Amino acid sequence: QVQVAESGGGLVQPGDSLRLSCAASGVTFSRSGMGWFRQSPTQEREFLGGMNWSGSKTYADSVKGRFTISRDNAKNTVYLQMNSLKPEDTAVYYCALCPRCIISSLPRAHNYDTWGQGTQVTVGS
Length: 125
Fold this sequence. Notes:
Elements: E1 3-7, E2 10-12, E3 18-25, E4 33-40, E5 43-51, E6 57-59, E7 67-72, E8 77-82, E9 91-98, E10 114-115, E11 119-123
Parallel strand pairs: 2-11
Antiparallel strand pairs: 1-3, 3-8, 4-5, 4-9, 5-6, 7-8, 9-10, 9-11
């Protein structure tokens, strides 16, 4: 059974950094694309960034320069490093698998077939 699970969320202050992790199981991780999304009560699900199986990355303009995606194939884990966090970054963050994604497919949520349960990130008091 293919599964992904996010971790690393929490409460931080504006300007802080946070690194989220997404561990995958039941899949040949090194041959899968991965993406990060977020959703808040006031906003629809938003694509943040993704990486295809070869390591090519793409980011949403809203987070470009602040968020960075990396992966460790040996640990079947992808990371989202978030810097200079703002209150508007408050949301539930999700990772997802996109086994057949090319770089242009990564921003589209319907291309992903396995989603985690999400991890809450809250920026501010």
